[in-house]
Amino acid sequence: MSHSILIVDDEDDIREVAALSLESIADWKVYVASSGAEGLSLAIQHRPDAIVLDVMMPVMDGPATFRELQKNPATASIPVLLLTAKVQSSDQRRFADLGVKAILFKPFDPLTLADQISSALGWD
Amino acid sequence: MEPAGQSALSQALDQLWARFLPQIEERVSILESAAAAISANQLLTEQREAASASAHKLAGVLGTFGLARGTDLARQLEITYSREGVPGSCAHIAEITAELRAIVASRN
């Protein structure tokens, strides 16, 4: 089954590899945003099936963007996965406490990224 | 995934690597400048913060392009530069930075 997904990351290399991976391997429709503000706008416009949200972004970081998504009835029900290069367990606990569906770690394997997302969201 | 699909993805990743290599090399250059500044005992706070941010970005991306060792080294440097003050063992930092440069150069 095909899905649509929004990737929000300020790093263009990560954004493009993730988009390439999800489009070519899973055949999902992928939207990309380079900031939290753009992510909010695209989430409202396209209502993707899920959002992958980078943690460390300037101006509005991942947790702040997630809280804004939760406040808006148009986007509150969209499942969100955080993407982070932070590996310390204290960071992981802090992110998990936000209420996101899952935490994905950088670097990810482009061959298995779609499987990781599907598994976290019960899309298997 | 079929082998043909894997091959196509691998080719596409190679193209992305070539496209983003200048920015990846720039991040390594920032780390090299910081390592040189440590050796000269002239590391500025802004330089340390820039090095921490560059190392963080490299740690996140290099493994995605198959350079797992590069991610490990960048992560060590991120931890080093994220601490306040002047990092110790400048020879070790220079070694790690040089290995990181070699790993990036080795992926064609």
Summarize the structure in short.
The complex is a heterodimer of chains A (124) and B (108). Chain A is an alpha/beta fold. In chain A, 43% of the residues lie in helices and 19% in strands.
Number of helices of chain A: 5
Number of DSSP E strands of chain B: 0
Instruction: Quickly give the structural class of chain B.
Output: mainly alpha
Approximate strand percentage of chain B: under 5%
Detail the poorly predicted runs of chain A: none
The CATH superfamily name of chain A is Response regulator
Fraction in helix of chain A: 40-55%
Biggest sheet of chain B, open or closed, and with what strands and sense? none
Give the termini distance of chain A in whole angstroms. Answer: 9 Å
Helix percentage of chain B = over 70%
CATH class of chain B: Mainly Alpha
Using CB atoms under 8 Å apart, which protein chain pair has the greatest interface? A-B, 19 and 23 residues
**Molecular shape of chain B:** elongated
Q: SSE order of chain A in H/E notation?
A: EHEHEHEHEH
* Alpha plus pi helix count of chain B: 4
Shape of chain A: globular
Oligomer: heterodimer
Average pLDDT confidence of chain A is: 93
Write down the CATH topology of chain B.
Answer: Four Helix Bundle (Hemerythrin (Met), subunit A)
Fold and architecture overview:
The complex is a heterodimer of chains A (124) and B (108). Helix content of chain A is 43%, strand content 19%. By secondary structure, chain A is α/β, with parallel strands linked by helices. Chain A is built from five helices and five strands; from the N terminus they run E-H-E-H-E-H-E-H-E-H. In chain A, helix 2 packs parallel to helix 3. In chain A, strand 4, helix 4 and strand 5 form a beta-alpha-beta unit. With 108 residues, chain B is mostly helical. Helix content of chain B is 80%, strand content 0%. Chain B is built from four helices and no strands. The mean pLDDT of chain B is 91. The chains are: A alpha/beta (124), B mainly alpha (108). The interface between A and B is medium-sized, with 19 and 23 residues.
